[in-house]
Design a protein that fits this description.
The chain is of the alpha/beta class. The protein is built from eleven helices and six strands. It has two domains: 124 residues, Response regulator (Rossmann fold, 3-Layer(aba) Sandwich), CATH 3.40.50.2300; 89 residues, Orthogonal Bundle (Arc Repressor Mutant, subunit A), CATH 1.10.10. It has a six-stranded parallel sheet with strand order 2-1-3-4-5-6, with helices on both faces. Helix 2 packs parallel to helix 3. It is globular and about 50 Å long.
Length: 228
């Protein structure tokens, strides 16, 4: 059973989300919070597996709450919910460790699937903002923020692992990668785990940034070679 805490300042939204989630036999809502402070207090008491967190709440917003929550409970999975696709909220949510970012108004089926997805260690993104995240990673990859990887680790990556990396760079979910490469989702998760271990990266977000940096580095190197 997946234990879920819902944090939203609108009572109607809180109870609507509770009804939707408890329509699944795999989910149990363990608490309802109206702001970030309440959410932190409930997490200490209930220790949920997943937190659905509204981005904009009084007293403490969802992004700041995510930062504090992840610092204390790394194993808790957090999905930011909002009606806005604001770039700053997206960037900070992932910078502080959010596992997903979804726009409100999605179908009940998609919401339940998102909860199950992050519970199993995946990242979930609304399609409307997935392209924004990829562009954001691209900007970061072109900045001074770099991730170094041992050259030996690169040689150890298999052809299939490179294909998985390429799809993650483009923001594909495990399900989408599985369909594209004719694999099961479990196999994709295993590939991802192996890739992260080989490259000594923390999660798929770091992997996506690293992949973009590698592609840019190879492009620049190729361009310089042509000029020479």
């Amino acid at each position: 059973m997946i234990k879920v805490l819902i944090a939203d300042d609108q009572e109607l939204i809180r109870h609507s989300l509770k009804i939707i989630l408890e329509g699944s036999s795999k989910v149990k809502v363990t608490g309802l919070a109206c702001n970030g402070n309440e959410a932190l207090a409930m997490v200490r008491k209930e220790r949920p597996d997943v937190v659905l967190m509204d981005a904009r709440m009084p007293e403490m917003d969802g992004v700041q709450c995510t930062k504090l929550m992840k610092a204390q409970y790394e194993d808790i999975h957090i999905i930011i919910l909002t009606t806005f696709d604001d770039d700053e909220y997206i960037y900070n949510a992932f910078k502080f460790g959010a596992d997903g970012y979804l726009l409100k108004g999605m179908s009940a089926q998609d919401l339940i699937a998102a909860v199950e997805s992050v519970y199993h260690g995946q990242t979930t993104l609304n399609q409307d903002i997935a392209s924004k995240v990829v562009k954001m990673f691209s900007r970061m990859a072109k900045s001074d923020y770099t991730m170094e990887t041992d050259a030996v680790a690169l040689d150890e990556l298999t052809t299939m692992e490179w294909k998985v990396i390429e799809r993650i760079e483009h923001g594909s979910s495990n399900k989408e990668i599985a369909e594209m490469l004719y694999l099961s989702e479990g196999t994709v998760r295993n590939y991802l785990s192996t890739i992260l271990k080989k490259l000594q990266l923390r999660d798929r977000t770091q992997l996506a940034i690293w992949a973009l940096q590698m592609r840019r580095k190879n492009y620049v190197a190729g361009d310089e070679h042509e000029k020479a």
